[in-house]
Amino acid sequence: MRVAVTRKIPERGLELLRTFGEVVVWPEQLPPNREQLVEFARGADGLLSLLTEPVDAELLEQLPTVRVVSNFAVGFDNIDVAACSARGVAVCTTPDVLTDTTADFAFALLLASARRVVESANAVPRGDWKTWEPLGYLGLDVAGATLGVVGMGRIGAAMAKRATGFGMRILYSDAIVRTDAERELGAERVDLETLLRSSDFISLHVPLTPETTGMIGAKQLAMMKPNAVLVNTSRGPVVDNEALADALEKGTIWGAALDVTNPEPLPANHRLVSLPNCIVTPHVASATEETRANMSELAAKNLIAVLQGEPPLRCLNPEVLHG
Questions:
Q1: pLDDT at residue 41 is higher than 70
Q2: Is 162 known to be catalytic?
């Protein structure tokens, strides 16, 4: 069996794959383009992909030997699952292993924005710290504030759990009634507009779908409180970048913290990067050594299981396994 890995991943996963068969790993820092990916993965039985590689009908047509696509992520907006299913290709992801790590980072972004951590820390090497100032770098209180969670799935619920330690009121918006979150965390389910109007901090945890693309735009930002902070660790296209930059510049909302952007990477000269009330990080919410190693292991196990005719731990289209 031959497996193509589209970028260097933690060794734990690669070691598993090497015990199974031939493994080729894309050697460069930047991801392969379509032409390079086709040439690199030609003849592979399995493809271990990242979010940077679109897997669609066109790619599968050029890689007819691929039987499984194992995504090194919990999200799968880079993969056309229907196209994979039509060709009998299993699609696997890596949920659960990154839940707590991502929620930790989302809450860290919330705190960093509320207390102006990046802005004030950057003032020190610039020599702007002259003395203790009663009015210097005043931020927002987090304890006792209202957190609105948009998307109360695994990570959204973990984010809400962290908020309970700060005595925060928790609102959530989700197509599904999350009875566990309501019972265990005291979360209250409301519609999106109510959440936006009532929350001091809003954290996005939705998958990228046609329905969620651009769900936070100028209209939604205008509903928020002027002292509201928006945190996004879901997917960049969920938020309209230009509308957000306008809202931050005009003071429509107080601040934003983004670990995901559209596009990625966000150009260094983009307005959001230069705004003092916006924190932008390079999609690192799951970036701890242990979590990324666990992701590589799960992605490898999923891929190996499919190629051995066994049920993987996480498959989005299990019907193809019985075809």
A1: yes
A2: no
